Amino acid sequence: MQPRQTEQSAEQQYVDALYARLDGESRRVRADLDDARRASSADPAEAYTREVRVAMLTRRERTLDAAGHHLCFGRIDDAGGRTLHIGRTGLSDGDDQLLIDWRAEAARPFYAATAAHPMGLRRRRHLALDGRRVTRVSDEILDGTEPGPGDVVGDGPLLEAISARRTGRMRDVVSTLQAEQDAIIRSAHRGVTVVEGGPGTGKTVVALHRAAYVLAGFEEARSDGVLVLGPGTRFLDYIAEVLPSLGENDVAMSTADRLVADALGLPEAPAAGHELRRAAGEARLADELAAVVRGYQAPSGRLTVLVDGDPVTLDEHALAEARATAGGTGLPHNQARELFKDLVVEWVADEVQARARVFLAKLDEDIEVLTGGVNVDKAAAGDLARLGFAPDDGGRFGHAAAVAELDPGALQAELAEDVALERAVEAAWPYLVAQDVVLDLLDARPEISVPDADAPAWTAAHLPLLDEAEHLLNGPPARIYGHVVVDEAQELTPMQWRSVLRRCPGRSMTVVGDLAQAGPATGATSWADALGADLARRADVRTLTVCYRTTAEVLEVAAPLLARIAPDQAPARAVRNGDVPRRVAAASDELVDAVVRETGALAAAGPDDLVAVVAADAAVEQIAGALGDTRVRVVPVSQVRGLEFDAVVVADPDGITGARPGGERDLYVALTRPTRTLVVVG
Ligand SMILES: Nc1ncnc2c1ncn2[C@@H]1O[C@H](COP(=O)(O)OP(=O)(O)OP(=O)(O)O)[C@@H](O)[C@H]1O
């Protein structure tokens, strides 16, 4: 038998044993889960323990289900001949660790060892499986020794993975993660990790595998959940299968816009043009909204309340003090209003009591005069004492008793319910709703206004403003996350960042993006622009340098553009070579025909290939119409960030660069989408 076959059948035996173990554990977990679900207890502590157990077993059940697909994909052998198999979950037989979870520390050398730093390994082995059958074994020798009879050295699985035809859905790449990617995924850093890198360097891959790692390793991520944010629904569909295939089904996925719309209970808002998005996304609008809200908080003047028909007035000084106290708590506006009202009530109650005291003292005097000097207190002392009143130092009960009857608590409670007082407070410090606050702001900013203030047609661009206002009025969002992953992070406006950050109070985040690909709504040129100087300073910034998507030839076509739009950025290094991209000249009236011809040729040449046309947004409809009903996708350049295809036709590059500001960045994004074939028509 060939070494390849011998090794393959030895691995097959091992893999069979792993699957037997997996099946056994799945059966056991399911039985335990049934038991745990059936058990009921009236004791709250026991009921809680049971719930925790059900949650734990459910998670394990899911992990085991997902792990069944390509259960084991690697093995590492150290110089002493010890071996470890690496896979999607850990499996053991008593003390024997049969399979190591890829996230475990012991699996690190599988990803991190190189010939320069073998980390004690002699060999790294990749296993390819088809169902439960081992279809291939391939080895890398890391310690510089010659391959022996048991080594199967050949083409790397990475090359095979990245050369494979795309399906339109991203897959997990847990079996071929590269060292520079793995170092970020496994980082123990709990704050903000920023991952930058050119197109196709695996930023999305890193972000998603990091989410899975963080879920397993960080307690706060497990308890408060993980959120993945992407630039649009097309992109979210594209990445939807990666985390479930890693056994993680509980990760929330959304766009920054949908996140806010859901939180505020608003319907999906229509997309906005980049000018509106940019204008409505400026950071200073947060200050302006805060000023709008402050403007409603007891503006200077006096506050008059009618109590039993008598006016009681808080003068400017008293009002300013109440405003300063309520405002100074830092509470959101609507909660601070309650405190403001309490202060007004207290003030008014004091005033009413002071007036009563004066009035009663006067009454005592009048009675004494009327009764010819008879001291009423003295005369009624016995009765008053029986009623529980104590005389003051001068032996007087009179107004002390009467004022005591004006129980301050009861008086305040009564005032708090008083309609006239409530009306006066509402005029000074009204309850506010977010939409009204934003409409107030828009009065002063016609460039971001909505047409009809009575039925405002909010667009996605306004959502972060509404979210900001909601925060100012009612405080932090109810739903927060233990870890937030932001993909295509260069696309978020400063106001969107504020929405995202307020949902991640722990600031445990993975932020991935490429500033050279920034669209016109943000045009961020530094991470400090994007994240704010403070957070950017504390962030752990990593750079990916190797392009796994496309060929060296395609990167070469994009290189002059990169030099113009991001002169400081070193181009990524491609690991593959391929065909030289083609340029097809076409006059503007022939353009659509030429695009149809070229895509037709590509689709015919690769019947299973994923073929796309990328065009300026305004040109999409015409091209799609001319193409008719084909499997070729026509994608507007504004929505193509993060996506990839086997073959791409870029239609009318000048049209793309001229369509909107920063058009060269759009073109750069378009040119870097293919995994293999690029045709530029124009
Ligand atoms: N270690 C890897 N093994 C196999 N495939 C990989 C690996 N790293 C990246 N890839 C593949 O390379 C392609 C590009 O990866 P990804 O989309 O994560 O790049 P990106 O940096 O996010 O790109 P962009 O900037 O265009 O959004 C994907 O098909 C991905 O699956």
TrEMBL record:
Q: Which SUPFAM superfamilies match?
A: P-loop containing nucleoside triphosphate hydrolases (SSF52540)
| UniProt GO cellular component terms | cytosol
Q: Looking at the record's lineage, which domain of life comes first? A: Bacteria
What keywords tag this UniProt record?
ATP-binding, Helicase, Hydrolase, Nucleotide-binding
Quick one: signal sequence residues? Answer: none
The segment(s) forming the UvrD-like helicase ATP-binding domain are: 176-551
* Binding-site positions, ATP: G197, G198, P199, G200, T201, G202, K203, T204
Q: Which residues form a coiled coil?
A: none
PROSITE patterns assigned to the protein according to its UniProt record, in alphabetical order: UVRD_HELICASE_ATP_BIND
Q: Which GO terms describe its biological process?
A: recombinational repair
Molecular-function GO term, any one: hydrolase activity
Q: Does the keyword tRNA-binding apply?
A: no
Matching entries from InterPro entries are given as: DNA_helicase_UvrD/REP, P-loop_NTPase, UvrD-like_ATP-bd, UvrD-like_helicase_C
Q: Does the keyword Coiled coil apply?
A: no
Q: What is this protein called?
A: DNA helicase IV
What is the species listed in this Swiss-Prot or TrEMBL entry?
Promicromonospora sukumoe
